[in-house]
Specification:
Helix content is 34%, strand content 9%. The protein is built from 10 helices and 9 strands. It folds into 3 domains: 8-151, no CATH class; 153-252, no CATH class; 253-364, no CATH class. The chain has a 3-stranded antiparallel β-sheet, covered by helices on one side. A 3-stranded antiparallel β-sheet has the order 4-6-5, covered by helices on one side. A 3-stranded antiparallel β-sheet has the order 7-9-8, with no helix packed on it. A hairpin with a 2-residue loop joins strand 5 and strand 6 (284-287). The protein has helices at residues 8-19, 31-38, 42-55, 155-180, 189-197, 201-220, 229-234, 262-273, 293-296, 313-326, and strands at residues 26-27, 58-62, 77-81, 254-256, 279-281, 284-287, 308-310, 336-338, 341-346. The two termini are 64 Å apart. It is elongated and about 85 Å long.
Length: 364
């Protein structure tokens, strides 16, 4: 009843299977006849049976595996609700006849009663009223005398519930963020949602906790404008607030006091290649990575007008991997179109080596 992966028709099909089971709990009724009873097409019934099977509520077996060797092969399936027990010889109960005269059929099967109109031995359940057929089921309820173990919930149901909880948590975060962020009313809501969806649960918590300190820092610097909420989330601005030697999420920060330093020039060139914006706060350059010889190599590059146009696919891939590892925050698309070519401008055909040198060869 509460499995949201199922449709109303699936519950009808599940109940119909129970009306036509044999003593082992298997339903061998043809799909054509079951579809007629439900007033739907056979294809509709097949889809319903498949959903029940995929959700883990029924099992199925090919009927031809139970048939005598000299009989005509059949590719039809028998279905059984998994709440039924499996302690009877199935081969001895195999039935290839779907007529009403079939003695093993649940509609006419004789079941011993306990004198009160209820099948004895915990088998099945009492008649369901006009039009219902007495079941010769196997009694799935443990209080009726069987030894069934509690069923585990189907894996897909568990995964679906976990996904629903994650979506609910994400929606609560978005609502709380909009309530706290000053520019939420005029921000691009779709872009804010996209940035929020990319955050992990720990980042969501850190983002909310960092709003107050971040806004206080803007006031301390005399900033009159507040960045859009999506920019705060995309660039993870809360991680750039200096808290001792680490950020709010525990990642190390490199803070350079001199804006005109060699490190600053190198980072400016690096971020220019990536089409990103370097974070500068109160005259200090803040960079979340490590300043290595590879990064310092950009301090020696010439003006952007002297950069070269990169179109080689291997060189583009090498630059993209390098920028992804060393540039933090939001980046614009790297490639641009010039005439019929797609490429971008860079100081050299390849990124710098680990020792800080630039490869000379085009095929380095």
């Amino acid at each position: 009843m509460t499995d949201r992966s199922l449709e109303p028709r699936d519950l009808q099909t599940l109940c119909l299977l129970g009306r036509h089971i044999d003593r082992a709990g298997w339903c061998m009724r043809s799909q054509v006849r079951m579809a007629e009873e439900l007033g739907c097409g056979r294809a509709t019934l097949q889809r319903s049976l498949e959903r029940l099977y995929e959700a883990g509520w029924v099992e199925k077996r090919r009927r031809d595996t139970w048939r005598p060797e000299d009989s005509t092969p059949s590719s039809s399936y028998a279905y059984r609700v998994k709440l039924d027990r499996d302690d009877i010889d199935l081969k001895g109960l195999a039935s290839e006849n779907d007529d009403v005269d079939d003695a093993s059929h649940a509609e006419i099967a004789e079941v011993p009663e306990n004198g009160e109109g209820v099948p004895a031995g915990g088998q099945g359940c009492p008649p369901m009223g006009t039009g219902a057929h007495p079941s010769a089921g196997t009694g799935a309820h443990t209080y009726a005398g069987t030894n069934n173990d509690p069923l585990e919930r189907p894996l897909k149901t568990t995964e679906r519930d976990a996904g629903a909880r994650a979506r609910d948590r994400k929606e609560r975060f978005k609502a709380e963020f909009r309530k706290r962020w000053p520019t939420a009313a005029v921000d691009d809501r779709h872009r804010t949602d996209y940035a929020a969806d990319a955050l992990t649960p720990d980042e969501e918590k850190a983002a909310l906790e960092g709003i107050g300190p971040f806004l206080d820092e803007l006031k301390r610097q005399g900033r009159k404008s507040v960045p859009a909420g999506w920019r705060y989330l995309e660039e993870k601005r809360w991680t750039l607030l200096r808290q001792g030697e680490s950020s709010a999420d525990g990642s190390a920060l490199r803070v350079w006091s001199d804006v005109g330093s060699r490190e600053h020039c190198a980072l400016e060139a690096l971020y220019a290649v990536a089409k990103a914006r370097l974070f500068v706060n109160a005259g200090k350059v803040i960079y979340r990575g490590s300043i290595t010889p590879q990064i310092l190599a950009f301090a020696e590059v010439g003006d952007k007008a002297s950069w070269r146009w990169i179109t080689d696919r291997q060189q583009i891939a090498a630059w993209q991997a390098f920028l992804a590892a060393h540039v933090f925050g939001v980046r614009s698309p790297l490639l641009e179109q010039r005439g019929s070519e797609h490429g971008f401008y860079a100081p050299g055909p390849w990124p710098p080596r680990k020792d800080g040198g630039w490869p000379d060869s085009e095929a380095a």
